[in-house]
């Protein structure tokens, strides 16, 4: 099974992905986490990505596509994978379609978290105060929101047009409440005889 957790910055993708991973026995592949680890290790990829991420911009598609492709190729075909933070552009979505076609796999569901923008900004500013992430400054947050509307939001339509089940889940409420909604949406697809989400 291949799933995608989708949503704007601060919508709870990483938070919900950890819970979905445990509940459904999926491996979690977060491009944001991979990039932050490359930055922390000072690798060539990390050096290229650090400045872009701190400004709230998207790192180049070809770099991200290579990272995801190499991880997917190392995954056992029988393993379920949850993609978090990827794809973030139509180009990445098309690259993913090609990678999965080559591996004989396909996307089973997309869970899209819906949270109003003022709440997203509050959550990220709160995280800035706790964790001090380089891209959680007010300026970078506003740029991430802008990039989301400009380049990422259209990815959902790509999947709707492809006939892949897309579940829009209300991401407002406590983390367990949001997880309950996401879990029910995924179960509708993964349980035999389900009508889809
Ligand atoms: P990500 O790591 O994906 O960062 P994000 O969009 O902010 O999501 P994140 O998972 O961190 O936030 P979450 O909603 O879980 O990407 C970081 C950067 O990497 C990008 O800006 C970009 O530069 C680069 N990048 C990554 N993937 C890329 C790609 N494919 N292409 C190009 N560039 C890419 O949580 C946010 C906060 O809200 C947390 O503090 C959490 O505790 C809190 N929260 C979660 N759920 C909550 C709830 N229900 N109630 C209250 N608070 C909640």
What does this structure look like?
This protein has 197 residues and is of the alpha/beta class. Helices cover 59% and strands 13% of the residues. The protein has nine helices and five strands; from the N terminus they run βαβαααβαβαααβα. A five-stranded parallel sheet has the order 2-3-1-4-5, sandwiched between helices. The chain is globular and about 45 Å long. The chain starts with a strand and ends in a 7-residue tail after the last helix. 35% of the residues are buried. BIS(adenosine)-5'-tetraphosphate is lined by residues 9-15, 31-32, 35, 52-53, 56-59, 64, 85-86, 88, 92, 123, 127, 135, 144, 174-175, 178.
Secondary-structure topology with pairs:
Elements: E1 2-6, H1 13-24, E2 26-30, H2 31-41, H3 44-54, H4 61-74, E3 80-84, H5 90-103, E4 109-114, H6 117-131, H7 138-152, H8 154-162, E5 166-170, H9 175-190
Parallel strand pairs: 1-3, 1-4, 2-3, 4-5
The structure holds BIS(adenosine)-5'-tetraphosphate.
Residues 9-15, 31-32, 35, 52-53, 56-59, 64, 85-86, 88, 92, 123, 127, 135, 144, 174-175, 178 line the site of BIS(adenosine)-5'-tetraphosphate.
């Amino acid at each position: 099974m291949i799933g995608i957790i989708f949503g704007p910055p601060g919508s709870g993708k990483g938070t919900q992905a950890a819970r979905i991973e445990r509940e459904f026995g999926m491996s979690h592949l977060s491009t944001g986490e991979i990039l932050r680890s490359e930055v922390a290790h000072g690798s060539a990829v990390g050096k290229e990505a650090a400045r872009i991420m701190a400004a709230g911009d998207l790192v180049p598609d070809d770099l991200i596509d290579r990272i995801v492709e190499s991880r997917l190729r190392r995954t056992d075909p029988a393993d379920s994978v949850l993609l978090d933070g990827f794809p973030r552009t139509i180009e990445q979505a098309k690259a993913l379609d090609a990678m999965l076609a080559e591996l004989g796999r396909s996307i089973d569901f997309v869970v899209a978290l819906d949270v109003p923008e003022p709440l997203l900004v509050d959550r990220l500013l709160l995280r800035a105060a706790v964790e001090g992430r380089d891209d959680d400054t007010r300026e970078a947050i506003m740029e991430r929101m802008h990039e989301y509307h400009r380049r990422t939001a259209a990815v959902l339509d790509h999947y709707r047009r492809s006939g892949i089940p897309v579940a829009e889940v209300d991401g407002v409420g406590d983390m367990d409440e949001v997880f309950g909604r996401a879990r029910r949406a995924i179960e509708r697809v993964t349980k035999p005889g389900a009508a889809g989400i």
